[in-house]
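Review form for a predicted model. The reviewer records the input and the model, then writes brief findings.
Reviewer: anonymous (R2)
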Amino acid sequence: MFKVIKTITGECPVCEDIKKLSYGTRVETLKINNQNIHVKTKAYRCEDGQHYFYNPADEENKFQEAYRKYRELNGLLQPEEIKDIRGKYGLSQRALARLLGWGEITIQRYETGALQDNAHNIPLLFINDTNNFEKLYEARKPFLGKKDILTINKHLDKIKQLTLFSSFNKVRPRDMEYGRLARIHRLQSIGDYQYRKPIRTREGELAIAS
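Model under review:
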């Protein structure tokens, strides 16, 4: 069903002539990876030939909306979610690509709307967990620059500190009777993030200070 927003007189690229055109919305079915995706899109309809055509912006929006629905149906990360993962660790697009062993343009494409496959989506989901990220980070550190390493360390410090503060609110009153070191161990044991190493500062020293 086509719902008219406005009517104009303009050139129909199919008829190659000036025609009465209607601009409106319609539901279209696109096939993405052999899966039918229904999207609402804007289009022009030539009232003489009863055929449809799109301007470039509307056609791009049509495919991007279809990709978003496809991601939702198949458990794939949306572009903004990939950006959020990158921002969580302070990574540039280039640094994240190096960390994952991908081509440098790959992350940029995904963040601007290109559809990732499941083989690339799984590693992104994997590193969204901070424990998993740190394991990969330690293994891939030789492939990163010094500036990237300092930035990642800083963000990991922040994540660990926030986790410890969050865990502190969960400590039972009797735990406060323990000594300071015992309380820290208690916080680490109940934290959502498994604290395996000393928190790193810019200089690499312990950040747990009295």
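Findings: Residues 192-210 have pLDDT under 50 and may be disordered.
Further findings: The domain at 75-144 is CATH 1.10.260.40 (434 Repressor (Amino-terminal Domain)).
Recommendation: see findings above.
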